[in-house]
Task: structure prediction
Amino acid sequence: MLVSVGVSTRLLGWCRSESHPARLAGRAGRATAARPRASINFRPAQDKDGELIRKTIWGLRMNPLGLNLRNFSVAETDSGVVGFAQLKPLTASSVELASLVILEKHRYCGVGTRLALHVLEQARGRSVYLTTLQRTTPFFKGLNFREIGLTEGPWPLVLTALAGTVVARAAAQDRLVVMKRLGKEDSIRS
Result:
């Protein structure tokens, strides 16, 4: 089943990912050309997506535990998969946004934001948590997530976070952060 819900799941216009500040680091003086953005559709992951998801997660040194294709949504264009993310159940009232990946040549074009919003729609009133590296927190803050303490989430997430703290320092030389998406009942803490 292909999901397409109006403008929020379509990307049209021009993508200037090559000129994004994160892409230009160390590329002074090189001109880059804009490229057209493709139309993006979202669908549940299928068996054929499993190998790409597993290889990409391992290649990026992300948490490979708990990968379940039934929890994944895939973003794709006519040329194929451009990203994926999963919404993992934690408790009856909470889920984890996990394994959010946009393939490199499709980054900085809004695909990640739209994919995250698509997946978050599936949370249906449940509390949403995530673990991420410190350097990616600005992206998630833009989606209304706020940092919480490592032990403030549901127990299954706390276990992942405590183990991930060691791995994040060793594999990514970064700090692991636990975040919760603010809902109407939550107050914003600075």
Q: What stands out?
A: Residues 1-14, 16-21, 23-34 have pLDDT under 50 and may be disordered. The beta strands are 14-15, 35-36, 41-44, 72-77, 80-91, 94-102, 127-133, 145-148, 176-181. The longest strand covers residues 80-91. Helices lie at 21-24, 50-59, 111-121, 137-141, 155-172.
